[in-house]
Design brief:
The complex is a heterodimer of chains A (193) and B (173).
Chain A: E1 2-9, E2 20-26, E3 32-38, E4 41-47, H1 50-58, H2 64-71, E5 75-82, E6 92-95, E7 100-102, E8 107-109, H3 113-123, H4 127-136, E9 141-144, E10 149-155, E11 163-172, E12 175-185
Antiparallel strand pairs in A: 1-2, 2-3, 3-4, 4-5, 5-10, 6-9, 6-11, 7-8, 7-11, 11-12
Chain B: H1 3-13, E1 26-27, E2 38-40, E3 46-48, E4 57-62, H2 67-83, E5 89-95, H3 99-108, E6 115-118, E7 134-138, E8 144-149, H4 157-171
Parallel strand pairs in B: 4-5, 5-6
Antiparallel strand pairs in B: 1-8, 2-3, 4-7, 7-8
The chains are: A alpha+beta (193), B alpha/beta (173).
Amino acid sequence: MLLALALLGFATTAAAASPVTRHEIDADTGLESWRVEAEGFSLELVQRLPDQTRAFFQGRGFDAVLADEIARGCVFQTIAGNTAAAPDAPVIALDLAEWRIDSGQGQRPLMLEHDWQREWERRGADPAARIAFRWALYPTRQEFHPGDYNWGMTTYGVLPGSVFDLHIVWRRGDELRQYVLKGLRCAQDIDGN
Amino acid sequence: MKLHRLLAIFFLLILPALPQAAQTLTPMLDQPLAPDFELTDVDGKKHRLADYRGRVVIVNFWATWCPPCREEMPSMQRAWERLQSDGVVMLGINVGEDEEKLFTFTADYPVDFPLLLDRDSTVISQWPVKALPTTFIIDAEGRIAYRAIGGREWDDPALLVPVRSLQRGVLRP
């Protein structure tokens, strides 16, 4: 059972209604999650344990070194979509290249799929593993019509246990929306680091 | 207990609640021609999309490790049980995995409709797919009529209305 810890409201762009956000800790696993909902846009970020990510990618053809690099790059299971009930509601569009993280040392972009793929190319990662990676990571750009949603991993390029603010950007129809989700925490590794 | 079962149980424990999204299919306004393919199913039988021309085809791209794919698979089977007598075809195209993974999967998630193997992701790369699962409804002329990104409860009668409507168009003299 999930334990609701807080219901928080933050400001977003002037014309938009304030998103509803929720931070929870799973009573069984101890994993933390953050949820943002606003005008049909729904986003949930759930911590992934580094060991869980290592096992996933090693099981799909990555060697231990590469799987460890992904796992220690702060991975969140990410679920985003368009929860609007009306079939003609505005399309929600995401471009993760517009998102920024701030861990107290200035803003920087996420590690995106093409960043990783360049690295896998350079290091000769197994082609089958790269296919699995392609489909396991959250797509950089995507549009969601009402009823559409998607799951995938997002990676942030900071160490396990790091705390950061996430600047989220999305479009609802032609309108830009943005929001700062404060205090996201990467899952700790098994060694506590 | 095997490792994959342990991982599956662990995974289910952390499975977040799915968004309460509308049960809808998105109509494809331009209705592009569905890219043809020929793929082998887990029993070694070849399936060519063009061979199903004249029938409505549901094409589902999925993978065993993908949570919403697993979530929707039982409802796809139930939908298939309701639709197959109408002449609708359902094809599940697995991306990047092998027969062994699928045999293990179908032990837990038994399905009767064909599960095809797109091991090197050649087919999915030719389709307008960004994420798994994505499902397309192909009309009798081989055009993509509807699309669903993310899982659905496929046996929801409301969701099957457009599918049945397309198929009735096929049967109408």
